[in-house]
Structure formats: C-alpha cells, structure tokens
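At your convenience, could you comment on the folded chain following this short note?
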Amino acid sequence: MSFPLDRLAMQLDWNLLLTFMVIVQERSITAAANRLNVSQPSVSAALRRLEERLDQRLVERGGGQAFRVTRAGEAVYREVLEIYGGVVRLNDLTADGGRALSGTVVVHRSSHLEMDDITPVLEDFRRQHPDVTLSIRSTPCHEVAQALQQRASSVGFCTRVDPTIQRLRAKPLRSQEFGVYCGPEHPLFRQKDIDLAVLAASDVVGYEEDRMAGALSALTVWRVRHGIGDRVIAAATGIVDLSELIESGTAIGCMARGHAIRYGARLWQVPVPVPPPLVDVFSLVDAERHMTPVETALLTHLEAAGLATLPRPRSL
C-alpha cells in the first residue's frame, strides 16, 4: 500500500525545494533567478509546480515590488532548511559509520574580521581530532548569517547581528581595535606630528561594508564624528585588496591592527589624536538545529574558550 506522503517523498523534485528556499531568502523571483543563474520564467515555473504539488499557496505575488510569504510558505521554508542542512551534512553523519570523530566542519567568518583570537582555538581543536577537516570560508558579513540559516555552516564569526533572525544565537566576543593607515604616497606617511587639515581632506578607501548601513558602520560613524577623511574613492571586499589600495595609493583607510601588521608591509598607522575605533565581534550559532557529533565537539571546544554558546536541545 502506498500512502500519499510516501508518493510525495518519492516524486517531489528536490530542485523545486531548493528554488523555493532561494526565493524566500532573496525576497524576489528576479533576485533568486540571478543567484541560481537561471531564467526568471524558470524560477516562476518551479514555484508554481511546487505550489501545485503541495496544493498550497506559498507566496503572494502582488503588483510592483509586493512579495509576501504565506503562513504555509513559512512552514515549508523551515522544513526545506532542515532538508538542505541534512544534505550538506551527510558526509559527516556517515563518516566511519559514526564510530570516530571525523568529517568536515564549516566555519564562516566575515572577510574583514581579524581572527587572531579565534584561529588558535580552531587549530587546537584540529590537533585534538586529526581526522576532522576544518573548512573556513570568508564572506561578506550578511552571508555568515545566511550560511547558518541554510544549515551550510556550523558556526559563524561576524561584526553585525540581525536581531530579526531569532533562531541565531549571538555571543559577544572581544571588540576589535581598528586603526587609520596610509601608504608611502600619502603626505602623512612616517609623520608623527600630523597636520589635521591634511587628515581631514584625505581621500578614503575602505571595505564595501564600511558604510552607514553596513556591517562596519561603526568605522564610518567614527570617521565622520572626528572629521577624519573626506570622500570614499574605492571599496574592497577583502583585507588583501584593501591593504593594496592603501599601500599603492594616496588615500587613508581603516583596518584591524592585526591585519595591518600581517598584510601591510608598507603601511603606516596614522597617529590620530582620538581614541581608536572599536568594532563589535560576535559568534553565531543556529540555536534550533540538530548538531552532528563533530559539530557538537567543535562548539563544546569553542564554548570552553569563551568563543561560542552551544545550541539548546530541540523539543520533540
């Protein structure tokens, strides 16, 4: 005898669920098509087929920019996230038949984040468990939370937390001190007594997230408050590109002091006459997901070092 639920499990195309997950995350058919690298009609057709298969309206499409996920759509989205995470973690769940702590754990970190306090703890965990592979991925800050929502990451480290994502548990870590740096072509290079007018009139290069609404908005607010720098002329996604922009150009830029020491061979820290900017740092964990044994071990290790909080057990 074949039950309707059995037929659904046997016949439902996984790609329909994947497409729906991306639609909800992007809040747009067009944006979902761009992310999936397919045509907009293909995404619309996939959504329509999924709704027909489930006999539920999942998204309300109105005129203009109107887009709303229905209550049924929200329930389906939560289940799709669980399925997606399970698929991503299949290798870990089956490694060595569950007898040994092995597999891959994925750590997402903001690309502008300096990890000197975190990397040694991760490396200590890897030494204790040599069959475990660490996959550390640098992304824009908002993609750290996105990876956790998609069950594609075990833990994340970032500089901004979206309070509307209630399932993500954030633990504040030690704030990072940033400095103002310039290269050999800037008039303040190697100057200990600086001309404040030159500092105020200097062009600025920064991260793409260094803007009023970005994950590094604290840097923008700090510069404006203290009259440091003028117009922003370039933005980078990662620390290497930013250090090269500062070293080879005539602009100033803010970066974490640890990054400047490591990547900026020719950088000079401008001795600004105000306290340095501080950027908040957080670890993120999905508080509702089921953890594999290797993920639990990693988070236990990070918790012991004060770098994360284990998720609460899910109620059945």
Remarks:
- Residues 151 and 189 are 46 Å apart (CA to CA).
- The chain has three domains: 4-88, 97-173+282-304, 175-279.
- Residues 97-173+282-304 form a domain with the D-Maltodextrin-Binding Protein; domain 2 fold (CATH 3.40.190.10).
- The longest strand covers residues 168-182.
